[in-house]
Design a protein that fits this description.
462 residues; alpha+beta; 4-stranded antiparallel sheet; globular
C-alpha cells in the first residue's frame, strides 16, 4: 500500500518527536537527583523543572486541545509547571522552582512517559494540521530548553565549591592546540558587505517563530563584519588596559550595572595568583589554553564596551542576517559534542557527534576537503567564520516586533511578543544550540545585563 504525504508527515513528526525527547533525557543522564534541584541564579531553572515544563507544554497546548480523551497525569501540574503564560493559569514565582522537592524526579519522568505515549497515540490516529504545527512548536520549545538546561547546569556547577565537571575531556585537543598557536594579538580581518535594499525575516517553507515574521525590506548601508568572533586573548587585553575602569567606554546603565555587580571579567573567569582560568562544561581551563577561543558569557554592556575600546561597534541584527542568509548551517553547535566554544580554525569540522541516546561523544575530524564542502562558512578565508555555533552574538539591535508583526493567537501569543521591551537581539546560536534549531532569521533575545548564556562578540566596522 502506498503511503500518502499526510501519513509520511505523521511518521516524520513522530520520529522527530522521539529524537528530541530522548536527547533531553540524555543531556540529564550524568546528573544526580540533587544536581537537578539546583537553581543557582535568577535566570536559571532546575534541570528537573526543565524536564517537567517541556512535558507540560505538549500536555497544555497539544493534548488538551486535540485529544478529548486525554487524562491529566496530575491535576496540579498545569499550574505548577506553567512558566509565564498568564492567560493559561496562575504559576509559582520563578525563584521558587528550586523548592519543588515534590514531585520527585521519578514522578516527573513518569509524567514525561505519560505525555509521550499520548502524543504517540495522537500521531498514530492522524493528527490534524494545527496539532502538527503545535507539536513542531513544542519540539522547538524543547530544543530551547535543551540549551537552557546546559547553560543552567554550567552555572550550577560553577557556583558549587567543588566545581564538578559535566562532561569529561572530549579527547579532541584541536581547540587547545589552535589556541596555543594562535597569538592573542592576531589581526582581526573584516569582510565587506555592499549594503542596499534587502529582505529580512523568515521566508519560504519550514518552521519559524512568530518573531521572525513578517519578511520585510530594510535598507543597509555598506558595512564590514569581523571574519571571526573576538577571542579570550583579545578580551584579556581589554581587561589589562583598564576596560572595566574607563567610563568613556560604557553605556550609563552598563557602567552602573557593572559597578553594582562587581564585574571585572566575563562570567566564569577566575583569577588565581595573577593567572586567569575559565570554567566550562568540561571543567576549569587555564586561559593560556583558551586564548584563541571565542570569549563567552558576557553581557551586552560588556560586548558594547569592548567594541568601543576596539574602535568598532556591534553589528545590527539585519547586517548579521543579510550576511548569514543562504549560508549552510554548520559549525560548533550542540551536535558537535564539544560543549565549549572552539578556536576559529577548528570550528565546524566535526562529524555528527552524538552516540545512541543523544549523549555527547568524542567528535572526529573530517578532512579539510570534506569540511570545505559541508561547512564553508566555518573556514578562515572563505567569508565569515563561526557564523553559527560557538557563541550567540550580541547585536546592537533592540528586540522589537517587525512591521506588521502578529503574535500567535490565544495563549501561545505570549511565547515571544510579551518580551518585546528592554531586550537586545542575539544571532547565530552557540555550542549548546541544536543544529536543526538554528537558521539565519532566528532571533534570540536577552536583557542587556544577562551573562549566563554562551554569548560573545562579532565586531562591525563603519
Amino acid at each position: 500500500m502506498r503511503t500518502t504525504a499526510v501519513e509520511s508527515a505523521q511518521v516524520e513528526m513522530g520520529e522527530r518527536f522521539g529524537a528530541v525527547r530522548r536527547r533531553t533525557l540524555a543531556l540529564c543522564a550524568g546528573l544526580t537527583a540533587e544536581d537537578m534541584m539546583v537553581q543557582s541564579c535568577p535566570e536559571a531553572s532546575p534541570a528537573k523543572w526543565h524536564l517537567a515544563h517541556t512535558a507540560w507544554f505538549f500536555e497544555s497546548f497539544v493534548l488538551g486541545a486535540f485529544s478529548p480523551a486525554y487524562k491529566l497525569f496530575n491535576a496540579d501540574f498545569p499550574w505548577l509547571f506553567n512558566s509565564y503564560y498568564a492567560s493559561f493559569a496562575q504559576f509559582p514565582e520563578k525563584r521558587l522552582r528550586s523548592s519543588f522537592s515534590r514531585p520527585g524526579l521519578e514522578e516527573v519522568l513518569k509524567y514525561r512517559e505519560h505525555v509521550d505515549e499520548a502524543v504517540g497515540r495522537l500521531l498514530e490516529r492522524g493528527a490534524e494540521p494545527e496539532a502538527l504545527r503545535r507539536i513542531e512548536l513544542g519540539l522547538n520549545h524543547e530544543e530551547q530548553h535543551q540549551e537552557l538546561l546546559l547553560t543552567d547546569i554550567l552555572n550550577a556547577f560553577f557556583t558549587n565549591p567543588l566545581r564538578p565537571v559535566y562532561a569529561g575531556d572530549s579527547g579532541d585537543e584541536s581547540h587547545v592546540s589552535n589556541a596555543r598557536h594562535g597569538a592573542p594579538g592576531m589581526k582581526m580581518e573584516f569582510v565587506e558587505f555592499a549594503g542596499g535594499l534587502r529582505e529580512v525575516g523568515h521566508g519560504g517553507d519550514g518552521f519559524c517563530f512568530d518573531n521572525e515574521l513578517p519578511r520585510h525590506r530594510v535598507w543597509l548601508e555598506p558595512s564590514a563584519l569581523g571574519r571571526r568572533l573576538v577571542t579570550c586573548g583579545e578580551y584579556a587585553e581589554f581587561i589589562a588596559d583598564g576596560g572595566y575602569d574607563r567610563t568613556e567606554l560604557w553605556l550609563s546603565a552598563g557602567w552602573d550595572t557593572m559597578k553594582g555587580q562587581g564585574w571585572r571579567a566575563p562570567l566564569y573567569w577566575t583569577k588565581t595568583d595573577g593567572a586567569w582560568s575559565a570554567f566550562t562544561l568540561r571543567g576549569e581551563r587555564p586561559l593560556e589554553d583558551l586564548e584563541a577561543t571565542p570569549v563567552s558569557h558576557m553581557s551586552f554592556y560588556e560586548a558594547d564596551a569592548y567594541a568601543r575600546w576596539a574602535g568598532r561597534r556591534l553589528a545590527t541584527e539585519f547586517e548579521w542576517e543579510a550576511a548569514g542568509e543562504g549560508t549552510a548551517i554548520g559549525g560548533n553547535l550542540l551536535d558537535s559534542g564539544m560543549l565549549t566554544p572552539c578556536a576559529a580554525a577548528g570550528a565546524g569540522h566535526f562529524d555528527g557527534a552524538f552516540e545512541a541516546g543523544g549523549m555527547p561523544s568524542h567528535p572526529s575530524r573530517k578532512s579539510k576537503d570534506a569540511a570545505r564542502m559541508g561547512h564553508p562558512e566555518c573556514l578562515p578565508g572563505d567569508g565569515l567564520s563561526q557564523l553559527y555555533g560557538d557563541c550567540w552574538e550580541w547585536t546592537g539591535s533592540a528586540y522589537l516586533g517587525y512591521p506588521g508583526f502578529q503574535p500567535l493567537g490565544g495563549t501561545l501569543g505570549e511565547y515571544n511578543g510579551k518580551f518585546m521591551s528592554g531586550q537586545m537581539v542575539l544571532r547565530g546560536g552557540s555550542c549548546v544550540t541544536p543544529q536543526r534549531h538554528i537558521r539565519a532569521s532566528y532571533r534570540n533575545f536577552f536583557a542587556p545585563e544577562t551573562r549566563w548564556q554562551f554569548s560573545g562578540i562579532r565586531l562591525a566596522a563603519r
